[in-house]
Amino acid sequence: MSTVKSTCYECDANCAIDVTLDAQGEPVSIDGPDCPRCYVQLDRRNHPDRLLYPLKRVGPRGSGEFERISWDEALSTITERLSQTRDQHGAPAVAFFAGYTKEARPQLQRLAHAFGSPNYMTESGCCFSATKVAEEVTFGTKIKTTSTVASYKTKCLLVWSTNPRGSIPPFHLHPQAHAKPGRPMIVVDPRRTPLADQADVFLQIRPGTDGALALGFHHLIFANGWQDQAFLDEWASGVEAFRDYVAEFPPERVAEICGIDPADLRHAAELFATLHPAQIMLSPTATVQHSNGFQNHRAVILLSPVTGNLDREGGNRFFNDKLNPKPIELFDHCVNDLPPRVGDEVFPVWTRHWPAAQSMLLPDCILDGKPQRIHSLLAMGINTAMWANSKRVEQALGALDFFAASDFFHNPATRMADIVLPAATNLEREALIAYPGCAFQGELRYRYPVVTPKGEARPDAQVWLELGVRLGMAEQFWNGDLAACWAEAASGFPDDVREEVYSNPDGVTVYAQTIDDLVEHGYLDADRQYRLHGFKTVSGKVEFDSQELRDAGHDGLPIWREPAESPLSTPDVARDFPLVLTSGARHKHATHSQHQYLERMRKAMPDALVELHPDDAALRGISNGDEVMVSTRRGSVRFTARITDRIKPGVAHCAHGWNHANVNELTDDTALDPISGFPPFKSLLCDVAPVQGAGLKAA
User: Fold this and answer.
1) Nearest to 237 by CA among 529, 526, 548
2) Closest residue by Cα to residue 320 from 139, 107, 156
3) What residues contact residue 455 under an 8 Å CB cut-off, 6+ apart?
4) 137 φ, ψ to 5°?
5) 479, 445, 485: which is closest to 461 by C-alpha?
6) Which of 31, 339, 449, 596 has its CA 20 to 30 A from that of 693?
7) How far apart are alpha carbons 447 and 454 in whole angstroms?
8) What DSSP character marks residue 233?
């Protein structure tokens, strides 16, 4: 037996692991963080249903009928068909998509742009990016909201729609997973999470009303003189207009909108505004996956500067770049030399801040030619379950002239493909890893393969280089040499750091340059970076009333709007679908859809669940464990009922990421957020009914 150091990639935390190999060099055990995702890496490698050979479709799209072919035939076919599309319709008519895993994104993006297409897309079209863009529009930089480092100086913690025990490794060991004596905690969530049980104030809001709740906080802060006026006078823009606007959100109105007690709102606002420093702990997606999510998120994050807690130890710090690899994606070529990306036409603020096309528009591009026509698609880690109204996405994939995809397993997307490629797992591929870490500290590692790939699986990045060579761009793609590709990316590090990255299996800790910059200017604390250069916004200040948004035709203030589909905005719909539908709460036994094939994970979470409050279940004759149909205007999907008083009355929460019970077949792909293009995954309308004759399951 021998042990090799590596890194996990069951989510994007890149945790260090030790892999034990037997005498034949086969991995037999993994030692790492106390995380179920870590332990199932061998289950994926050895799974009997894993894709191990290139496949060619021989039946109708969606039939699942494929035959094994050689890699040469697969790559030749992809090269020929993509070139044919470019010759007939132009390079932008080919889209390139990257889901999980993320490590090969630089190579795929480079392939897209070298090919001549600006239309490289990722899952960030509905995940994370909107929070980043909202923060850059407002502050000029991203703030750190999900840190794995807790500050001893934090005097009040505002946990807003996130549950570290289910979403942030190391889960129950996360420093924010438990209340801290002497540090009051406020929890905002439609579900009673473990943290909510420990909270001093629990605000169980109606999904989608985050913006109204935040504006209610602001109303009370200004009404009681709790704002940091000195900071606002020097470092904020648009405060007077914002103050006038929040005057319209007294506690009684906000409580009615959100479904909470106004006394709880008053208590929460006083705790947060008067105990300094205070920190907001946020999910990267929960506030933005709504029809008005971008502005909702801005209203929430503005609580930090209005109370003087922005980029302050114990508050919300700026998220700084550390040592980054040399860019190899050719994004500058895309911006300077290629036509507009999909999304430039309708979401220009988002595309200005995010280096990709907006993937949520892909079905429209394929089926309607709007805003651009897409004829062919090359993808890795794609699943239709990622898109709202997923059945329409399946229809779109079926309408493509050509579609090729790489993955570990079949899913509804790969079954629509003409060519399917078998992907190597993280244990089987090398990669340069730059983990962003926390506000000032990051990690660099070079992960060598632990074992050769199973069957004929290949690293995605290697495949994209080989396609670049076959498309006549050998020199641009390092003649297919993956190690040389990563070496060029690593050339962005200083020599001593680069040498240690390659030689030290434990990786290298790196720090943000801004620490030294602050010291050189006489500051002894590594926060409040705005003292050096102000804020990287249009005004150079925190923008309560954003000029960038106004210039793009949007409201500059974080205006509150009801969800596009809600009991108040669409009462006619609510008559037939009276429950508010939300989805996507994380749990540690899955990263989206990628663990549902693995038996050990399914034992912990065997069923796709819809959570209902006992009052709503009783009204519908539903018992715990019943098979039920969840229905919206888009259709119906079968789930298993979990009856729990942890969900807010009038709300149904559906698990996401299940191929056979896909909640996104029910979600809306038309009411996209007007700034980010994000779908309203978390605030729609539905009803739930028992499946007649299904019988009861064990509770």
Assistant:
1) 548
2) 139
3) 50, 52, 53, 422
4) -65, -35
5) 485
6) 596
7) 18
8) H
